[in-house]
Amino acid sequence: MPRFIIERNFAEQLEIDNEAKIQIKEINDEEGVEWIFSFLSADKRKTYCLYEAPDEDSLRKAAERLNIPADVITSVDRIDPGIFA
User: Fold this and answer.
1) In which domain, by residue range, is 63 found?
2) pLDDT at residue 80 above 90?
3) Which Pfam families does this UniProt record tie to the protein (predicted)?
4) Which is more confidently placed, 53 or 19?
5) Which has more pLDDT, 64 or 18?
6) Structural domain includes residue 85
7) Structurally, how many domains does the chain consist of?
């Protein structure tokens, strides 16, 4: 499955409660996307999220339904330090 990084910019600090976590999982499942992990900036206003998804449109639909930004979506490939050994 293709992988994508989503850069999100929030107007206020990000807070995710248990109800939001459940809603995120449900909508992502319905759109066929899987949230792998995220990095959160020190000021809690920007995230970089790694996803697996069939395409960029699926990610945009999930973000719209969740009412969260998807400012930049970039298709990525995985590399790790082992390729340089």
Assistant:
1) 3-78
2) no
3) SCO4226-like
4) 53
5) 64
6) no
7) 1
Q: What CATH number is associated with residue 55?
A: 3.30.70.3090
Which stretches does DSSP call E strand in the chain? 3-9, 34-40, 46-52, 72-76
In a domain, residue 25? The reply is yes
Instruction: Determine the Cα–Cα distance for residues 29 and 9; give it in Å rounded to an integer.
Output: 23
**CB within 8 Å of 75: residues ≥ 6 apart:** 2, 3, 4, 56
pLDDT over threshold 90, residue 47: yes
For residue 63, tell me if it sits in a domain: yes
